[in-house]
Amino acid sequence: MGIREETVWEALKQVRDPEIGIDLVNLGLVYEVLVTEENGKSNIHVKMTLTSPACPSGPQMVQDVKDVLKQLGEEVGEVTVEVVLSPPWTPDRMSEEAREELGFY
């Protein structure tokens, strides 16, 4: 059956922006998750952005995403992370939970 997209989204909630302390999903940094099956493995492609183009934590967060997704099991094949800057991230992309945690009302 392979890895389900919902499983990937849940796993990504383990990755936190080290400067803000909120997970990437609730911050709205993850734009898209695509899971494709190939040779009995689930290849995972994540399209995400950063809070700013000059975010110093970007490389660390990309590596954390790869590490967390590889831990989903032996059925995980290739994991790719595409960092895009368009559309740019804005606080409007945050979940209600993240807004409350950061004091945005």
UniProtKB/TrEMBL annotation:
InterPro entries: Fe-S_Maturation_MIP18, FSCA_dom_sf, MIP18-like. Residues 5-81 form the MIP18 family-like domain. It holds the Pfam family FeS_assembly_P. It comes from the Bacteria. PANTHER family: FE-S PROTEIN MATURATION AUXILIARY FACTOR YITW. This is PaaD-like protein (DUF59) involved in Fe-S cluster assembly.
